[in-house]
Model the fold of this input.
Amino acid sequence: MKLLVLGGTKFLGRHLVEAALARGDEVTLFNRGQHNPEIFPEVEKLRGDRDGGLDALRGRRWDAVVDTSGYVPRVVRASAELLAGSVGLYVFVSSVSVYPEFSRPTDEGSPTATLEDESVEEVTGETYGALKALCERAAEGAMPGRVLAARAGLIVGPYDPTVRFSYWTARGARGGEVLAPAPPRRQVQFIDARDLSGWLLRMAESGGAGVFNANGPDYTLTMGRFLEECRAASGSDARLTWVGEKFLTEMGVGAWGELPLWIPETDETHRHFLRVNCSRAIAAGLTFRPLAETIRDTLAWQAAGAPAASKDGVPVPDVTLKPERERELLDAWHEAETSKAAALSDGPGGDRV
Done:
C-alpha cells in the first residue's frame, strides 16, 4: 500500500509509520520537519505546512492518507480537498472528546459537541472536542463516503507525550504505599498506540470508511486490575491503599490531571468517559495486545530516559501527585480512618476502654 502520513514523527504517527514499514508499505511523510526529523531515513519526506503550504502534495497519488495532526477544521478541509483526487481513503484520527457529555453510555450515534462560533480556531480544553467534530465534518464534506473517523480514547504506550498513563507505570515501579482512587472496580479505558496504528492500517488497506470509537480493551478493565498489573510488571513492593472519593474531593485532589484516570462518580458530565462503546471498531477488526505488554514497554521506554511531558514540542508542567503530596494525603486518610473506627467503637453498643 502506498501511504501518505500527515505528521508521523511524534507519538501515534511514529508508531503508525513503524507498523507500515514492518508491513512493507511504501510510506511518504508530510510535515514541517520540526519534530524528530532524523528518524525514518528510508522514508520519503515532503516538507511543507498544513496551513497554507501544501504544494508538495500536488500531482501525487497514494492509496490512503492518515491524518494524525488535524485539529482545526479549516486546515483539515484544505488537506482533504487537495487530496480528494489523489487518495482513495482519508483516515482522520479524531477523539472520543467529540461527545460533549458522558452522563450516559456513548456510541457513534451520540450527539457531538458544537461551537456557537464555528470560526474559532484556538484549541483549548473547552474547544478541542467540538473542533475535532468539525474536522470530521470537513473531511467528509471534501471526500464523502471515503473518510474513516477514528474516535480514539486515551492513547498510551512508548513515546506518549503526556503522563496520564505513564504516571501509574512509574508509580508502580517506585513501590511503597500507593494512593489508589477507590473503588477498585471503577472501569478505565485506553488504547496502545501500536494497536490503534495496526488497525488504522488494516482499515486503510480495505477502504473501511465510517465513524468508529477506537478505545480498549475488549473487556471491562478495572482500576484495580490495571494497578495490580503495573505493580506486577515492575516487580516492585508497591502496596495499594484505596482512598475514598469523598476524601479525595474534600482534599482538593485534581481529577484526571493530579490523579490520572480518576474521574469522580459525582461528576455527572464525565461519568461514562472511560466506558465508551467500542463494539463497532472491535467488530471491524480492532484487536488489543496484553495489558502487561503495554505496561512493560512503557516502563522500558521510561527507564531509557523518556522525555518530559510536552505539547507541540513545548514542555508542560507535570501536575500529577508528587511523592510528598501523596504521603500527606495517605497520612491524612489513615488518620481519618483511625478516627472513624474509634468513633464507631465508642458509639452505642461499642466497647469502651
User: Anything to note?
Assistant: Residues 2-159+189-214 form a domain with the Rossmann fold fold (CATH 3.40.50.720). The chain has a mean pLDDT of 95. The CA atoms of residues 100 and 113 lie 5 Å apart. DSSP finds ten helices and 13 strands in the chain.
